[in-house]
Amino acid sequence: MSDKSNSEEDLVQPRKKSLLSGLLPKKKERTQEEADQDLERHKEHQSFIKSVSQSAAQTIVEKGARLAGMLKKSKENISDPTARRKIKKSEHVQLQDMQEGDREAAIDDDVVESKFNGKDLSTMVEHTMPIAEVAQLYGTHIDTKRPLDSKGLSTDDAAALLKRFGPNVVVPPKKTSRWVKLLEAMTNLFNILLFAGGVMYIILYLINPDKNYETIWIGLTLIIVGFLNAGIEFYELIKIANILESFSGYIASQSFVIRDGKRIVVSAAQLVPGDVVFLRAGDKVPADCILFWGNDLRVDGSNLTGESEPFSRVPKHEGVPQTTDPFDSPHVLFNSDVIVTGEGFAIVTQTGQKSSIGKINSLTRNLKQRRSTLAEEIKRFSKTITLLAFCTAFVFFFVALARVQNFNYAITFGIGIIIAWVPQGLPLTVTLILAISGRRMTDQQVLVKDLHGLETLGGITLLATDKTGTLTKNKMTAIQVWLNGFMYFCGKTVPPGSKQLKLDVSGVAQLMHVCVTCSRAKFDRNDVPIDERVIIGDATEAGLLSFAAKRLNNIDRLGDMYPKIFEVPFSSETKYHLTIHRKSHANGGITLHIKGAPEVIKRLCSSVWVEGKIVQWTDEEKLKFDAACVDMAQNGIRVIACAIMQLPGTKYPDNYKFDATKANYPQEGYTMLGLVGLEDPPKEEVRGAIEKIKSAGIKTVMITGDNPMTAEAIAKQTGMIKGNVIRVLDATSLPIKAPTDESIVLVGSVINDLTDTDWLNILNHETVVFARTLPFHKLELVKRAQALGHIVAVTGDGVNDSAALKRADLGIAMNKTGSDMSKDSARMILLDDNFASTVRGIQEGRLIFINLKKAIKYSLSHIIPEVMPYLLYVLVPIPLAITPSQILVVDLGFELLLTLSFAWEPAEDQELLMSVPPRKQVTKETTKRMLEIQMEKESYLHQSRMQLNDEDAHDSQLLVDQDINGLNDRLQKKYLTHLNEFKRGLTDKEYWIAEYNEWKALTALPSGERLVDGEVMLWSFIEVGFLEFCGCLAAYVSVLWFSFGISYSDAVYMQSQGSLYFKPKSPDFVLQSGQILSGPDQYEALRQAQSAVYLSIFIIQVFNLFACKTRYTMLLGARVLHNQNTWKSIAAGLTFACLVVYTPPTNALFLTSLYLNPLHLLIPLSVGAFLYVYSVVRRFILKQCILTDNR
Fold this sequence. Notes:
By secondary structure, the chain is an alpha/beta fold. α9 packs across α11 (213-247) and α23 packs parallel to α29.
């Protein structure tokens, strides 16, 4: 080998003191010079570390800055020197740990350990280094001129590095174990109330076990119901998880690698830093790499960038400036990129979690998913019921204690009051309604991972959506052609007054030949019709091939008719693709085809094709050309220019040898054929879906990586943008003024410069379009919108969408095109990738909210008839009108069956459902209120943090300096959420102040609507509740008087004697009428009266069921009766109620009587009929009042 070749080989040959040498048996001490160099390199790239980690920084910057100040103050408050030393020592230990790296994974080799610690492999700096230094750093051998002669790593080196760094896999999202899911289902507040009620009944039994067996089985029943409720929710979650697993079947990818100078195939998981990989069209890049040799390499990076247009990748042997972002470096390939065309060799630099996709995965894993709006509603409702129950029980406990002077009696009464307030069947009802609705959504191709997410979709106020693949087809389609100085349309629709492209137009055939032959796109097969074929190649060339294939009959023979003899591939430098073919013409047998950027092809052309002739290209014709380019570009159309050159046979004979290195081919003097305009068209269903979303009062935001012009054009085509548009294309357009136009278009580069006021003004526009965005921009938008009170839904399919999908109130991922990471982060998945499914989901979500509100409004109505007998039992007193066991079979018996009918309740008016605004509109007033709430919460948080103890101060230091998310996980494991809140409620006055302020703020929202609000409370507890109680009490008194002669005063006197009367062995009692009532008759009288109360609740609730069926329409006509499941529920409830009252076995179990005279039930029938008439009149009056106000 010559000296020259030796020097070239030395340039890329790793030396013994390389990064890898420490893994070999022979050890060598690291020099101080090497250490200083590594340390200097680490310092130089700290700024880049921030830019790469900007997404993660966005998630903690607000809390970190705030807690940093709190930490400083908290440290100043720690006067104990020991505590200060403890914190200081802890910080020192942390610093040492970060410098030493992961000791558990380290190999016992000082050289390797020191070198790897000197270089932070979580960042990419190799793109700024010459390729020779990169190869030396990673201890690998490459040949930049003859890549197949590269030797790569040795097998032993690769094995050692694999042991050091682990497999090249992105750590999958941590799967929640089934036990944890079951525990979470069991510990929701509804179930906690059921468990608490069951425990209280057991306590009652323990207080007085004598002849109190009823309480023990009631307590156990409530606990079993709690488990049943949790079990149903758990079953649905597991079923959904299994469906998701069936969609994400993983097939291990393979990679071509050079090791020991041999080309081998290994699993992508076995790749290590330093490996030399070979990539070709169709391959997915298995790790972050530095390209050192390439041939026409074009890459689709949409999975990370969201931009569908492939971009060129070329080697940069001298590296790039240190200020260059890796994403802008032309020789960097990222994990999950797809090779569209060409081939190349590259050095692996970052694998697994250290790769770009791994960093996004880490960000997504560390983000905490927000609680759904329904979960918040249930939490608030549970607090309300709990507060009412305990306050009532507390007051009447002392009343009972004062009247009876018996502690056991008073505590029994207090617990009974608490249990009567708890809607024991409502948790199960809500879960079943959500489960039934979830299955109905699945039938509509919408898979809901979180049952509570069903209702969230109906309440969204802002929908942030991708462009590519979500709004558009992600398939380039030719729609316009400029030929002979005229514009022709080739799409499905032709604008009025425009020309339709026809094959007999001069130049069309030549233009299509260029589109087909000057291309690397091809069909996967040619034995099926064109529409059934799949095109392999980048999106633009695929669109051109499809355009020609649908119009040329000889498409499959063109390659053979005009064989390619020379090619200059497209590159980002030349911006054109040139091919030469054996294609005869009058002056020879060779023709040159070229296509590319219009401005480039224009510069290379001197003539133009007009009406079958090649004529001189005049300035006037060039102006027409420029105008056509501008016209198409303004509409977001991608423009490709096509030209030819018929090479003269005298200069270029058939045996002429073209050579790219000699550039012995014509490079100017071409003939312009025309322009082809392509676009990624919107999906057919998108425009109608957008119209429905906007009519529903939901703000739409488009977020895309494409340029602003294209984004605006698509927004106009889909109907998102109408009217005037404000364009913010750089920081000079800041600050953002208050909205005066409907829409605004911004670029991602200005997001970091936006102030709080700017964000407020931006989100006050009806439609917002963000272009040229990065992943953390979408996350920032979600956080800003949520801070202003928006309920945010985000659609996405790429890895770059994962963080925003998880942070949003509802993340919506695509099933077919979505990445596994995006589907894991989302709460909802569109199985058919159809954007219109989002509209169906919103409709279903709104219907679920309405039906849940109807169900709760109906279900709460029977609480007052259950609570009031307990109060009268102490205050008057009268015998208890309904027993705990009978309350149980009200809530978990016929009430459960009747309430379930709401799960199948159709919309009262489908058009009205999508024409009313969201239930919690975001207005200037609500935004101001939300900001005030946040300030109050910040103040509360600040005061709480000032009380940190030694350990909490240390945790805060970790929060700021190390990992906020890790600390969150630690605190969640350390403290139980409900227990901690209960503790603060008992010990912290600020907790109640903050709760009061939040309640006051929320109830002050004029346009807000909640699941349980004042209207529901008024109807359930006052209007229907007391009316139903009066009907039950009347039936109760009727049975005692008409069947047994017991007057009201007799009942009061008998009960005032304590437990003496109304027992099977009670002494005889002489009624005011003179009649003597024996003990068994007293007992039978009470059981019949209680049975009448039980059945009265059922009868009146049936009428209430119909009264609650509508919200917007009148309660008359067939509309109220069209839910067939209502009649099935009534029949099932009636059967259950009759079994409880009129069968001997249940008489003994629930203390009812089969001897109850049905004539007494005419009273609740009359009350129920009155209730229905009252509801109709009430609805009519309210409707007239609304109409009057609107006028």
